[in-house]
Amino acid sequence: MENNKFPKGFLWGGATAANQLEGAYLTDGKGLSVADTMPGGKKKFEVLKSKEFVWTIDEATYYYPNHQGINHYHHYKEDIALFAEMGFKCYRLSIAWSRIFPKGDEQEPNQAGLEFYDQLFDECLKYNIKPVVTISHYEMPLHLVTKYGGWKNRQLVKFYEHYARVILTRYHKKVHYWMTFNEINGAFHFPALSQGLVPSNGSLDKQMIFQAFHHQFVASSLAVKIAHELDPNLKIGCMILYATTYAFDSNPKNQLAALQENQEMNYYCTDVQVRGEYPTFSKRLWRKYGVEQPQFEEGDLALLRDYPVDYIGFSYYMSTVVDKVSTTATSVSGNLLGGVANPFLKASEWGWQIDPTGLRIALNELYDRYKKPLFIVENGLGAFDQPDEHYYVADDYRIDYLRSHIETMAEAIEDGVDLIGYTPWGCIDLVSASTGEMSKRYGFIYVDLDDQGQGSFARYRKKSFYWYKNIITTNGADL
Ligand code: BGP
């Protein structure tokens, strides 16, 4: 029953990140990463923003989640076999920088780390699953934070360039699709996680965030340059956190505020990485935050111009509503991005407002603006799953969420959008980025592990596993 809405060769798959599932945090020469030393728990983000937060590993037990993940490091064959059983065409994963360069500033890479990813990619290729690799996903060697202060330091550009050169050179025959930084614009909300910036006195100097962005943009262009010099056919993309942004009402002031929020969150980084130049609204944005133009070195702007990305990868979980002037709006609790409640939408148990139509809008907006292929590399519903006595989870709520989003993807393709793939987030249960816990689950595969790190680590197929397998088999026709 082929409806031909999804193009032949559409990349159905799933997505994960090294720091949230591999575990084995000091195995085979891996160094400590920022993710290994982050607090866990529901208040994770509050802790990260507080002035008491210091980057230390003293309380090893407190940080268990990322240390053991779901022990994918030792279960990867079993996990990839399950992905293959669902029929994955691709698998988005990240390389742990701290496995390749334990401290980040070495010349010589860690051979055991390189070999691990060789085996992982070979395992994917055995099943004709194309690896899609994020070079840096909320994970960097801790030493680059403690010694250099994270991405605000220009030296990070050369460390990243060296790391990117090593992995691109080693794996470019096995990996065709790459992305330079996960959710690069996420730093507007969580700079500790993505830029390795440590708050002082409970706040971060905004100048540092914008300087760090600039260094990441330069690093991203260098990675594009390296990739295309190795093989002009390689596809290397950016990756942004996209939230469709609405004004609360037709008050022009709210409309303007929504436009500006959209520019800031969705387009500041993307314009630089895709169009190869800073957008005209940059000056307004810097003024808003009371910061100067970031320092550019000679040659930076030419590099950005000459090496834009090939495609746009993005995560989409929710939309957000901006209100500057109304008195009737209620602020939404839990929504990662803040904003006010949308009376037309329901929210997940974590306050993320569920909006499949917003995905069609996102796809249209991004494609109209950039005319580059789009790749939805994260989407999904975090939920508390309740397995029965056989560890079976009847996750109809997850199926409903995914189905409604796939429907609007098909509509966007009919609108003319060039969408190349879809990798729902956390295709196997893993540690949540925002809570550091296991109980916020996204997977098609249940992993027996709780928030205290207790469990058998056994894997079980959920109801959504069989549903998604059928989606892939019918190329999205049988929803
Ligand atoms: C994105 C991150 C992922 C992932 C996902 C779900 O922002 O790129 O790493 O974790 O969100 O978020 P959470 O785990 O907080 O529910």
Quick structural summary:
The protein has 479 residues and is α/β, with parallel strands linked by helices. It contains 16 helices and twelve strands. The strands form three sheets. It has an eight-stranded parallel beta barrel, surrounded by five helices.
Topology:
Blueprint lengths: L10 E5 L2 H4 L22 H6 L14 H5 L3 H15 L3 E5 L2 H4 L10 H16 L3 E5 L8 H4 L8 H17 L5 E3 L11 H5 L10 H25 L4 E7 L2 E4 L4 H24 L6 H7 L11 H7 L4 E5 L3 E4 L33 H15 L3 E5 L17 H20 L3 E4 L22 E3 L11 E3 L1 H11 L6
Parallel strand pairs: 1-2, 1-10, 2-3, 3-4, 4-5, 5-7, 6-8, 7-9, 9-10
Antiparallel strand pairs: 11-12
This protein binds 6-O-phosphono-beta-D-galactopyranose.
List the total number of helices. Answer: 16
Low-confidence stretches: none
Number of strands: 12
Q: In what range is the share of β-strand residues?
A: 5-15%
CATH level-3 fold name: TIM Barrel
Secondary-structure-derived class: alpha/beta
CATH architecture: Alpha-Beta Barrel
Describe the structure.
It is a single chain. The protein is α/β, with parallel strands linked by helices. It has a single domain (11-473), classed as TIM Barrel (Alpha-Beta Barrel). It has 16 helices and twelve strands. Strands 1-2-3-4-5-7-9-10 form an eight-stranded parallel beta barrel, surrounded by five helices. Strands 6-8 form a two-stranded parallel sheet. Strand 9 (374-378), helix 15 (396-415) and strand 10 form a beta-alpha-beta unit. Helix 8 (155-171) runs parallel beside helix 10. The longest helix has 25 residues, at 206-230. 6-O-phosphono-beta-D-galactopyranose binds at residues 17, 20, 138, 182-183, 241, 315, 378, 382, 425, 432-434, 440.
